[in-house]
Queue: 2 jobs
Job 1
Amino acid sequence: MKNLLITCSLLVGASAHTIFQELWVNGVAQGHTKGIRVPAYDGPITDVTSNDVICNGGQQHTECTPQMQVKAGDKLTAEWHHTLDSGSTGEAQDPIDKGHLGPVMVYLAKVDDALTTKVTGLKWFKIYEDGLDSKGQWAVTRLYNNKGKVNFTLPSCVQSGQYLLRAELIALHGAASYPGAQLYMECAQINVTGGGSANPPTVSFPGAYKGTDPGIKFQLFYPTPTTYTIPGPTAFKC
Ligand SMILES: *[C@@H]1O[C@H](CO)[C@@H](O)[C@H](O)[C@H]1NC(C)=O
Ligand SMILES: *[C@@H]1O[C@H](CO)[C@@H](O)[C@H](O)[C@H]1NC(C)=O
Ligand SMILES: [Cu+2]
């Protein structure tokens, strides 16, 4: 790789949180941390007005790998683990502490060059969201039970080209006041082929969330919630 203002070093954080660190395409793993701007530290972002909420701060690629090749309509899987090296340890806090309950979301932003693009100033649209179901189970519990994996579909009508794919999990155990909700997000670099001509409405990061959003300032305990409003726009469908 040449002329990249990024490093390829792998630094491992040590705290009880989580990192999106592997993308699967149609059931095939693309490689651990490959094509994902993984952070050195697994801790959350809590300031929803900060640029850190875009793709987890000024974090580095750990691999100088290029875009992952995906086709519009492909089945994708985002895989989270507690730390970058906890995936095979079987520890109870992998993929995340069970008490870190909340929603899971996926966004896309079209870019000229996914490998080198800056993360500021991009226009994002949501393609997946999962919150609290009618039985009272949270998206994070489903993620935990699926060993960190979340399946979603890349809409078949999105335009071909390069994107950052922002996969996000919000833990609400401290969200009764703001700042308190813990936002965990990383951005994968993808190159989409076989797309359509969709022109979905977009939002900005920061900007898409406010500290007063009912899905950001949220009482997780007493009484046990029965409904939850996922923050951000509704997920785009073709
Ligand atoms: C997710 O997709 C994979 C294949 O891509 C499949 O094996 C797995 O059962 C799916 N998981 C869920 C929870 O649907
Ligand atoms: C993206 O896919 C197109 C079509 O296959 C290909 O021509 C192009 O080289 C790819 N770009 C990158 C950066 O992978
Ligand atoms: Cu945590």
Job 2
Amino acid sequence: MSVANRTRRQFASDNYAGICPEAWAAMTEANHGHEVSYGNDTWTEEAANLIREVFESDCEVFFVFNGTAANSLSLASLCQSYHSVLCHRLAHVEVAECGAPEFFANGSKVLLLGGENGKIDPTEIHAAVNKRTDIHYPKPRALSLTQATEEGTVYSVDEVKALTDVARHYGLRVHMDGARFANAVAALNVAPKAITWQAGVDVLCFGGTKNGIAIGEAVVFFNREAAREFDYRCKQGGQLASKMRFLSAPWTGVLQEGAWLRHARHANNMAERLEAGLRGMPQIQIAYPVESNVVFARLPKPVVQGMYERGWKFYTHVGEADEARLMCSWDTTPEDVDAFAADLRALTH
Ligand SMILES: *Cc1c(COP(=O)(O)O)cnc(C)c1O
């Protein structure tokens, strides 16, 4: 692969992007002398405190290596093995975690819900819970929401509340997959607490990787009782970093002066620009409302092929068939967006 191809910014995933300057600077700063290991260091304490400030809550905070672990370990902490987890049929926990939630929860079954634009329709929860109430069926115990969703849409405060109200009604605990939580907060322009604990969320998997951190997600328990012995679960699951400071220090860098929201807002703006560029191009349809940092577009196969031949990378296996997922990152530039749109225009005119 040529260097030019190696360094070109792409639209395949926000995890194609590198480390943002704020996270990098904090890692450099953490790389002096010795520090206590396994999370008993001052960086980890500071990062957890900054997260408590962001959420205005005395929450329990843990740092893990990736989102699959964050989701599956936190869901496991909400469920017994005979329980089930309700989520959207396109949710990451269902389609992109290789059965890890079921594995780490020792068999809790994931049950699928429908809903337009990647969002769960609250009536689907009623249907799923009431479908069977006998002892032969796994007992619903948790509702998992993704914010922003896998399709790039964002639940409003009222939409989150409508879902958690139904969850409470049935005694379900609420998990939020926030791999792109920052993009949702930037899009809604609300306090982080308004779409989490104030809206009935028990545990949030707060994504760092896709928003400019090298490696890692924070698991944030607003329901402290659900966090009991979670440290043991992380250790057993291979998720307790011995050099924890390098997972936690970057969070101090992005949280201290609000870089996490600035980067997310920028990525969202780039998606908005991309959508504007694509709108009105013949043969191209935008698949979902563009509300965060991604555009899903239906492109004819020869156009996809043509774009690949021009060196662009993007996925067509996420979402529904024939949808290209065009993901913007903290470092996507207007020039990247315009160059991509110009190539598409050339192939579709
Ligand atoms: C990327 C992503 C994750 C985390 O995936 P990992 O590859 O395990 O870090 C979780 N949920 C959603 C919605 C994602 O897009």
